[in-house]
Specification:
Small Protein B, Chain: A; single chain; alpha+beta; about 150 residues; 7-stranded antiparallel β-sheet; 4 helices
């Protein structure tokens, strides 16, 4: 799997409970842009509308600005491709446990663009501080080791 884009902020701001793999419905020039590594996943999230899952705020700039339609919207909602059982499971989990569905990573798999989704619970401020402290201690240990 070749990671095309990652959402590192999601791992800092949220506790990831469970992950899923989904296809994403893209236009041709959007696929080229994603494979060139231009997708921005910060601030993106998934919503459920009409029995389908839609990715909102996923920013994919045009691959070649002059060759894209004038009406192209970079942050338009994009449909995610999942089985009905998975959609039903995600719907019940999100409503009952108050979880959010976030994109964690985009990658190519057999020439298809896939999205790794994570069911996430928001971290509190003190949990974020603990994460920062652990990271700093690890850095100091590596520096002392060298």
């Amino acid at each position: 799997m070749n990671a095309l884009s990652e959402n590192r902020k999601a791992f800092f701001n949220y506790e990831i409970v469970e992950t899923f793999e989904a296809g994403i419905e893209l236009l041709g020039f959007e696929v080229k842009s994603v494979k060139a590594g231009q997708a921005n996943m910060v601030g993106a999230f998934a919503t459920i509308k009409g029995g389908e899952i839609w990715m909102t705020n996923l920013d994919i700039p045009p691959y070649q600005a002059k060759n894209t339609p004038e009406s192209y919207n970079q942050t338009r909602p994009r449909r995610l491709l999942l089985n009905k059982k998975e959609i039903l499971y995600l719907t019940t989990k999100m409503k009952s446990d108050r979880l959010t569905l976030l994109p964690l990573k985009m990658y190519s798999k057999k020439n298809l663009v896939k999205v790794e989704l994570g069911l996430a619970r928001g971290k509190r401020q003190y949990e974020k501080r603990e994460t920062i402290k652990k990271r700093e201690v690890g850095r100091e240990m590596r520096r002392a080791k060298n």
